[in-house]
């Protein structure tokens, strides 16, 4: 069980934060291109899910999986998008993403007068607390394949 990486996007698709923990394979493109591809894919999947769902989905798109990883998604009312990639053994990381938003992002970014909302997150305190939190998760393993 492991966490591969985490993206935080604003409502306009700009990647405000990115970190890796156990990512074994790189995309082979620049990080900016990777961020654009990820956001575009999320935009398309959300649109597809909302149009094709036979039920009224209150929570909308939550996750999807491939044969190699699972992508977990959480969107805040203000339009921030939190995306975490894990291995397939992690069933649901929604609570984890909500915790990152409410207990880390809000506490160390929103309430920090030095941080400017809508710009990249350069807070060392946020980064270190996030890293500690991710490493404390029951499904985080530093030696995962």
Automatic annotation (TrEMBL):
InterPro entries, alphabetized: Longin-like_dom_sf, TRAPPC
Family: Belongs to the TRAPP small subunits family. BET5 subfamily.
Family annotation (SUPFAM superfamilies): SNARE-like
Main location: endoplasmic reticulum
Compartments it resides in: Endoplasmic reticulum; Golgi apparatus, cis-Golgi network
Description of how the protein assembles with itself and partners: Part of the multisubunit transport protein particle (TRAPP) complex. The heterodimer TRAPPC6B-TRAPPC3 interacts with TRAPPC1 likely providing a core for TRAPP complex formation.
Taxonomic lineage: Eukaryota, Metazoa, Chordata, Craniata, Vertebrata
GO BP terms, alphabetized: endoplasmic reticulum to Golgi vesicle-mediated transport
GO cellular component labels: endoplasmic reticulum; Golgi apparatus; TRAPP complex
Xref: Gene3D superfamilies: 3.30.450.70
Name this polypeptide is given: Trafficking protein particle complex subunit
